[in-house]
């Protein structure tokens, strides 16, 4: 599936297999993905890559997705739109949801993910 909008997408997830599969899907969809497995790595990559959208897991080994979203919004020259992609059920969510432009639960349907990326 390809589209006319090409986005630079940063995927931040400590699950290496899931993030690589998502990266492959996005590449096949015509986007340019980059993958990070920690929050610190994501900030480093985002500074050079300047993503349009960041897909951020909430549970990361060095910081949670809320802290990462806050850091992206307040430290990057051009902050990306941020989509939370989490296995946490709704009743376990906490923190400032205004940090995210969208929230998807794992496992995300790929068509829903693509539609969300194009919407944000």
What is the compact description of this entry?
This protein is α/β, with parallel strands linked by helices and 120 residues long.
- Name the poorly predicted regions: none
CATH class group: Alpha Beta
**Morphology:** globular
Mean pLDDT: 89
How would you write the strand order of the largest sheet? Answer: 2-1-3-4-5
Topology:
Blueprint: E1 8-12, H1 16-28, E2 32-36, H2 39-49, E3 53-56, H3 65-75, E4 81-86, E5 102-105, H4 110-119
Parallel strand pairs: 1-2, 1-3, 3-4, 4-5
Helix pairs in contact: 2-3
Any overview of this molecule?
The structure is a single chain. By secondary structure, the chain is of the alpha/beta class. It has one domain (8-115): Rossmann fold, CATH 3.40.50.2300. It has 4 helices and 5 strands; from the N terminus they run βαβαβαββα. It has a 5-stranded parallel β-sheet, with helices on both faces. The model has no long low-confidence stretch (mean pLDDT 89).
List keywords for this structure.
120 residues; alpha/beta; Rossmann fold; 5 strands; globular
